[in-house]
What we know:
Blueprint: H1 16-33, H2 36-41, E1 43-47, E2 61-63, E3 79-89, H3 94-109, E4 114-124, E5 131-142, E6 147-157, E7 160-161, H4 164-171, H5 176-186, E8 189-192
Parallel strand pairs: 2-3, 3-4
Antiparallel strand pairs: 1-8, 4-5, 5-6, 6-7, 6-8
Helix pairs in contact: 1-3, 1-5, 4-5
Amino acid sequence: MSVLRHTTNALGSLSTGVRLTVLGAVLAAAAALLPAASAAAAEPGVGGYTDPSYASTCAFHRYGEGETPPLSLFGADPLCVEYAKRDITVANGGAARFLLAEPARFALAVPACRYWQLDHWSVQATAGGTELVGWDGSYWFDKAEGSAAARVRNITVAGQPARAEDAAEVIRPYDARLADALIRDAAGLAVRLPVSGLC
């Protein structure tokens, strides 16, 4: 199992306009990571969230802020990862580190036959500041079974426990799709996917 490593990045102070642009980009990337796109292509309404059937065989690889997994995980079955995404902060470059790490993370996940991701999100304006919104996510798919599920929980707004609707209200001005996905996934979502003959 991988050890959490935290990296630093000296991007310096950003203007307010750049901060809002980066925050919008982070929220858009988060929307892409929630299964909104795959759920739209899948058969909806199969039921609520459950852990995957392969849960007992998972050995989670844990990664810190902006850290990308090694290519040696390509082809792992199942591929089970846990990401810390608690430093999505515009002022110190955490949002930029997040955005830079996501393409490699996504590229590793897409070809996997069985994939389970746990992540811990927090978006704040400044390092050490009160989080604007936060949540823990669990997203998985199994291409051999043709199933996938998602759930978000432990939702917070301004550092306090909150309902998904409250967090969505904070997020909606930046990304309406993410706001909708947060509400949907807080209830838990399971879908049917096309079965892959490669798995």
